[in-house]
Amino acid sequence: MGYQQELGDLRPLLDLVVRAARDAAGVIREAAPRVRTLDWQSKGPVDFVSEVDLAAEARILALVRKELPEATVLAEETAADVSPASLQAGLAVVVDPLDGTTNFLHGYPEYAVSIALLFDGEPVVAVVHDVPGDERFTATAGGGCHLNGLPCRVSAITDPRRALIGTGFPFKDVSDIAPYQAQMSRVMAGVSGVRRPGAASIDLASVACGRFDAFWETALSPWDFAAGMLLVREAGGLATTLEGEPLPATRASSVLAGNPAMHAWLGAAVRGGER
Ligand code: IPD
Ligand code: CA
Ligand code: CA
Fold first, then answer.
1. d(CA 137, CA 86)
2. Residue 216, strand partner residues
């Protein structure tokens, strides 16, 4: 059965995730002034989590588990060990409580709460709440993409020389950085500018509202992009793997997003093809 038959009107579900994201944004905003005194715990050599990530995630999960007890939960900090197969059946909630933790820990104002609802593995409801900017990007399947309640669209730029491209640098394992550097060289040679803001969910939201014309990153987790991919699609853009294959919202993947023309150009550029 499709999501329309199973879920009906998606707006109450959107209201729920918007409320959860707003509550988590409040937790993060309240903690921001004392960021220099926070304890960082290591998840990897250059990958940290703070009490704020955990508190924001707890706030979101308390609400979604109460309101959607039947949903499978994939959440970065406390419920990350969920098989892709279990996210493929029925309703699932995919949560990044604080996307852009490194930025947050340094007081660099680019971080967000990202929540997606999947049905049978595909995103159908999404919110990305940019905390310092207090911008809320929302989308529902077939219902379009909105920024603070107003419709938004991808850009109309088709000439790469006029394009602004977003990216995310590999950072967890840089032992083989050369392929990414080659991608970057090819992209930089063809466009107006490249930016690395440091929060993938906002990067995708930036594509959705036309600030970026396209975006790529070689390795992301579902909580980084499940909401953003729906924003981009509902704003008239494309979100795929770097190879142009369908993007799986249930497992780690590369991500390529953009308005249709710049998605095609950037895909060719990162794969080493024509520009
Ligand atoms: C990270 C950000 C970053 C991306 C990383 C992600 P986190 O998420 O989205 O932009 O380059 O790959 O892990 O760890 O800050 O939630
Ligand atoms: Ca993230
Ligand atoms: Ca995170």
1. 27
2. 167, 256
CA 223 to centroid of ligand 2, rounded, Å: 6
8 A C-beta contact, residue 100 and residue 53: no
- What are the sequence ranges of the domains in the chain? 2-149, 160-270
Comparing CA positions, the residue from 202, 249, 204, 198 lying closest to residue 223 is 249
pLDDT digits (tens, 9 = 90+) for 196-249: 999 999 999 999 999 999 999 999 999 999 999 999 999 999 999 999 999 999
Neighbour count for residue 1 (Cβ, 10 Å): 9
Domain 2-149, architecture per CATH: 2-Layer Sandwich (3.30)
CA distance 54 to 98: 9
- Nearest ligand for residue 24 CA: 3
Two tokens at 96? Answer: 């990044």
pLDDT in tens, 110-166: 999 999 999 999 999 999 999 999 999 999 999 999 999 999 999 999 999 999 999
φ and ψ of 129, to 5 deg: -110, 105
Evaluate whether 151 touches 138 at the Cβ level (below 8 Å): no
Token pair, residue 109, equals 């104002």
Per CATH, the number for 160-270 is 3.40.190.80
Please report where in the chains the tokens 């419920």 appear, as a residue.
79
Pocket of ligand 1 contains residue 110 by CB under 6 Å: no
The owner of tokens 């990153």 is 217
Q: Ligand 1 within 6 A of 20 CB?
A: no
Which pTM value belongs to this model? 0.96
101 lines ligand 1 (CB under 6 A): yes
